[in-house]
Each structure stands twice: as structure tokens, then as C-alpha cells.
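ok so for the tutorial part 2 we go from a plain amino acid sequence to predicted C-alpha cells. step 1 is just haveing the sequence, like this:
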Amino acid sequence: MKRVPYMVIVGEQEQADGTVAMRQQGGGEQATMPVADFAKRINDEVAEQLKATNVAPQ
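step 2 — the prediction. this is what the C-alpha cells look like for a chain of 58 residues:
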């Protein structure tokens, strides 16, 4: 299974705004987004990887 590591930062400003500052490891994409959007993004990526390997989510 392929891993896509992220660094997620939640400082005082992010906490107050309900967001996370996210960066893909290796200097990839950087973005600030609501926590729910980040969670959906991760869930979608995991589902895609499971689908590609024919593993059913539990």
C-alpha cells in the first residue's frame, strides 16, 4: 500500500479558526483548510488506495 505522508500543524490561529495547516512531505502542496475538509481528503485517499488494492474498508 502506498503512503502519502502529511505534516499537519494546529497552532493557536488554526485552533481559533477551526483549520489545519497541511503540507505534503517532500515540499509538495501546502494549504490551510477546515478540519472536516482535511479529514474528508484523507478518507478519500485511503478509500482510493483500498479500491486500487481490492481491499474492502471495514
